[in-house]
Amino acid sequence: MVVKSDDLFVLISAAFVMLMTPGVAIFYGGMVSSKNVLSLLGQSLGILGIISLQWFFFGYTLAFGPDIGGVIGSLKYLFLSGISGSSQIGSIHQMTFVIFQMMFAVITPALIIGAFVERVKFLPTMLFCLLWSSFVYDPVAHWVWGGGWIQKLGGLDFAGGAVIHINAGVAALVGALYIGRRDGFNKRAFTFHNIPFVVLGAAMLWFGWFGFNAGSALSLSFQALSAFINTHLAASSALVAWGTAEYIGRGKPTVLGMASGAVAGLAAITPASGYVSPLGAIFIGAAAGFLCYHATILRNKIGYDDSLDVFSVHGIGSITGMLALGFLAVQHVGGVSGSIHQVLLQLITIVAVALYSGAISFILYFLVDKLVGFRVEPDEEKQGIDIVEHGERAYDM
After folding, report:
1. Is residue 395 part of a domain?
2. Could you tell me if residue 291 is inside a domain?
3. Is-contact 124 369, C-beta < 8 A?
4. Closest to 98 in 3D by CA, of 233, 262, 189, 218
5. Do 169 and 321 touch, CB atoms closer than 8 A?
6. What is the DSSP string of 335-349?
7. Which terminal residue of the chain has fewer beta carbons within 10 Å of its beta carbon, N or C?
8. Mean pLDDT of the chain
9. CA-to-CA distance for 290 and 246, rounded, in angstroms?
């Protein structure tokens, strides 16, 4: 086979997306206490290794194998067998597509873990992520992208608003509720130990997201260029919107808030990036920044402990983008025009993914908890997950 320009573009995009998993780790790591930062980095590294292997063995074929009943892929590509030098997906080689989609599969469970940090064990978390990828992520990816029922119905998700962010956001919410609050929640302040870490992680995510969204065009095309600029504009407008909302509500725009706003905008534009105009992207980002900020305020009032606001940022952000896409899609970018019918299809996609992810995630949390136990002991939680689970400290003062 000969590697062509489109293959090279998508391979470079895959490398960008791979960088997002350690970016998530650093972004999250700055928002936990210093005694728990290594646990987050370790969980993210573990996911990078385990889910990459899962994708090779059977994840890819479940997601993108020949369709079985609109629900799951066949085992044709088990161990990536059946992929020859002439296998193509559009204008790229199938193996290029495998590698690109592998990075999507990796980052999705890495988003979930932010909801229940500072109180869970390493090995049960890895087991949950492996099971979740197999029984939740892979089927949903098939529904939306692999020839499944949502794709046949006409639901749109350019780069993973439903497949990745709503899917992970709902699983995170269920996990936070099932596992319960951190010790001392609502009784003492949980401080963010390193805000510069948060900004660095957000910058890595922002950078990687160009590959995430533009690469999803799977070719060097106008749609890829549109996705690239839309990604940047949405993140920028969400940053400004979150900072403005914070200034109005609290009197000061925080650095943490602006970084979180950028990530909310990135999550929101993900499903729409290859379908909307730049002006539409600015609107989606601004709406997401405003709504996600207020979702974090509501979470505080309700009192559940989604430690790093995974659902408020990724879930609410992508729901915003999925629905707005139905109205704002323009023909000259992605070949689809916005309509009430498309909004209805988007709503069906959101509800189906959320219900499935929520139900199966709950079952998997329950099974893993009963088999091996999710939470560390209360005294271990006070001591810190880093030393208890890994025998290491991030800082030797």
Report:
1. no
2. yes
3. yes
4. 218
5. no
6. S----HHHHHHHHHH
7. C
8. 96
9. 9
Q: What percent of the chain has pLDDT over 70?
A: 99
Taking only the tens place, the pLDDT of each residue in 60-110 is 999 999 999 999 999 999 999 999 888 999 999 999 999 999 999 999 999
For 328, the token pair is 């704002």
DSSP 291-316: HHHHHHHHHHHHT---TT-HIIIIIH
* Dist. CA 8–CA 54, nearest whole Å: 24
What's the pLDDT tens digit per position in 240-286?
999 999 999 999 999 999 999 999 999 999 999 999 999 999 999 99
Give yes or no for residue 1 having a pLDDT over 70.
no
Number of domains observed in the structure of the chain: 1
Q: What are the φ/ψ torsions at residue 76 (nearest 5 degrees)?
A: -55, -35
Q: Note the pLDDT tens digit of each residue in 382-391.
A: 999 999 999 9
Distance CA 76, CA 82 (A): 7
CATH number for position 61: 1.10.3430.10
- The boundaries of the domain holding residue 116 are 5-390
280/150 Cα distance (integer angstroms) = 24
Integer CA distances (angstroms), 143 to 20, 90, 171, 179, in order: 24, 19, 17, 29
Number of other residues whose CB lies within 10 A of the CB of residue 391: 8
Which of 212, 231, 97 has its CA nearest to residue 164? Answer: 212
CB atoms closer than 10 angstroms to residue 5: 11
Tell me whether residue 371 is in a domain. Answer: yes
The verdict on residue 396 lying in a domain is no
Q: For 158, which DSSP code?
A: S
Contact yes or no for 177/304 (Cβ under 8 A): yes
What is d(CA 212, CA 226) in angstroms, rounded to the nearest whole number?
13
CA 378 centroid distance within chain: 30
φ, ψ of residue 191 to 5 degrees: the values are: -90, 150
The CA–CA distances, whole Å, from 242 to 128, 239, 262, 389 equal 33, 5, 8, 36
Q: What is the pLDDT of residue 85?
A: 86
Alpha helices, H only, 82-217: 94-112, 122-132, 138-145, 149-153, 167-179, 195-214
